[in-house]
Amino acid sequence: MKNKTLIATATVFVSLFTSKAQNNLDLSTDNLMVVNRDIGASEENIKSTLTLTNKMGDGMAILKNESFVTGAIDLDIKGENNPGKSFVGVAFNIQNDSTYEAIYFRPFNFKSDELIRREHSLQYISHPKNTWRYLRTNHEGIYEAEYANAPSPDDWFSIIIKITEDQVYVYDKKTNTELLHVNRLEKQVSDKIGLWSGFNSKGAYRNVKLLE
User: Fold this and answer.
1) What top-level branch of life does the organism fall under (predicted)?
2) Listed residue (46, 54, 41, 47) closest to 26, CA to CA
């Protein structure tokens, strides 16, 4: 009964926010401030699709002309089935290149035979203090979760991240399922958001929309 309630709630949520969707954001170079990454070639529409190359350390492409505090972010993401080298997601409340919150995914864990790895498929972080390692050590199972009905690790997947003043929700659009719900560990300071990739990871992002 609990799972049915969650799915029903998520369905209402996705329907509500999709009905208010704006046009895809322009992800061309002029609209981005890229930090510790290079923009890679893309075979798709360059204005609505972005590819970030891999480099050591975390990196992001900040959306220069967008202001976001609370609401929802709707987008498609693609990583790869490359264990330990595919961390892809969205950063928000960005104060600088090392102080921000983020939701990210580990696609290489999506279909793992090991439950413990599947339960590490998506993650909330709040840098610099609340790194994934700190949160897993001190709050195991709270700030990361399994991707229910996970897609193939090498395929695009579609999500909605809802951000309120003090909470973050993550939904899978294909199945209308809530994947993660956590309390934020940082107060809102910045209205900057960006497309993020973690240590030595490349990533692709498309059809990014900001929803009311």
Assistant:
1) Bacteria
2) 47
The total of structural domains in the chain comes to: 1
Q: Which residues of 169-197 are buried (b: 16+ CB within 10 A; e: fewer)?
A: bbbbbeebbbbbebebbbeeebebbbbbb
Q: What local confidence, expressed as pLDDT, does residue 13 receive? A: 53
Contacts of 130 (CB under 8 A, 6+ apart): 143, 185, 186
Question: CA quadruple 188, 194, 200, 201: dihedral positive or negative?
Answer: positive
φ/ψ of residue 126, rounded to 5: -140, 90
Of the candidates 69, 156, 153, which has an alpha carbon nearest to the alpha carbon of residue 118? Answer: 153
Average pLDDT (65-79) is 97
Band of pLDDT at residue 46, cut at 50, 70 and 90: confident
CATH number of the domain encompassing residue 94: 2.60.120.560
Integer-rounded Cα Rg, in Å, for the chain is 16
Distance from the Cα of residue 5 to its chain's centroid: 24
Q: Which residues contact 122 (CB under 8 A, 6 or more apart)?
A: 89, 103, 104, 105, 106, 144, 145, 147, 170, 179, 180
Cα end-to-end span (Å), the chain: 30
Domain that holds residue 122: 2-211
